[in-house]
């Protein structure tokens, strides 16, 4: 089991472009979300989009460890459950950074070469599955990373969008522990791409569409 | 990608699930020049000037980084110096410094997309969205960079240094036409800058002075020649001023 890899994956400083992403916070703020509502947003996402993303990541890791590697079923299942084009595009843009890192670490790994065959570009959970295989991370650790990253992304973006005490951000994450644990359990229970839950809250979709048309934004999505 | 048909090997299908853009083997990828410097010192204007001067002879594209994503891109598109689709803005998550140094992913994506859509390109200009003297480009993104300061910032700026001023491939002292109005002696400012830069070039520029614009364009052409011949080595001015230059104080 890899010692450092899970920490690398969870580190916001990992240079894969994630600092350009607010995990839906900027679109939500534009629609009127207040600072006091951020903990509720974290919980809402943990029970919806994050279950889908984390489950897809675990499926992708399993696919990455099989021979031959075939990401198409999970990529297609996830794309079908991400109906809003700007969200698919954001996921693909973030996936591109992860793909670039995986290529740098192990260009000939079968999971990395399989990523290059996917068109349109692989979504982030698919690339994370490949990176997890490259780094030798287990599926539980990988899913922990996805869930934690979502919380940290929103909490960090809040410092730019709804500024306040940075220590609050930490407290929000700690308070989300129980919900995060449920998300992990649910995500790991998904065994096949066909079972991937479609958790697409209508407001998340609508806000993402509005954000895509907005000028002067700070974050990709 | 009809533009890239010439890059295909004979017999290889033009379309396919694994189609990637490949630069022709005999030609290096586009030269990427970063334009950094404090807000308002004329970076976007320099990009517009370079497009105006060079777009006739070179295939060019532009990437902007801004705190608010698309201000600079909109300015450049409205300047009409390049087809609008060749000007891309990247989101920086309110961290424009990170986007050109610690994590250049979004910028690399934009450059690669432009090469894929319009390649082969000769030159990609990348504008930084930084707001101070310390933001410089990582060599992972820019092959060469120019740093812009202006006379309106005061004659002392060049002497105070900072990584861009001391280490950028070219230092531009901009808006020299304003010097008489802000009581700055351009010659002295250039001399100060040259002392701070250990022989690296300094260019006094004004968008109203065609001769200075010609020198700027010539500098880009010269870097491009070196880039193509493989003799240009990207150097990193670093995120901090070298200690050996910090004795001036402030
Ligand atoms: N007088 C004068 N003004 C200039 C010159 N170059 C740029 N400016 C003006 O300086 C201001 C800021 O320029 P801009 O290119 O947007 O700077 P940026 O923030 O560094 O991109 C604008 O009002 C420009 O018109 C110059 O050579 N002379
Ligand atoms: Mg500008």
UniProtKB/TrEMBL annotation, chain A:
InterPro entries: UreF, UreF_sf. Gene3D superfamilies: Urease accessory protein UreF. GO terms for molecular function: nickel cation binding. It comes from the Bacteria. It holds the Pfam family UreF. Keywords: Chaperone, Nickel insertion. This is Urease accessory protein. It comes from Streptomyces griseus subsp. griseus (strain JCM 4626 / CBS 651.72 / NBRC 13350 / KCC S-0626 / ISP 5235).
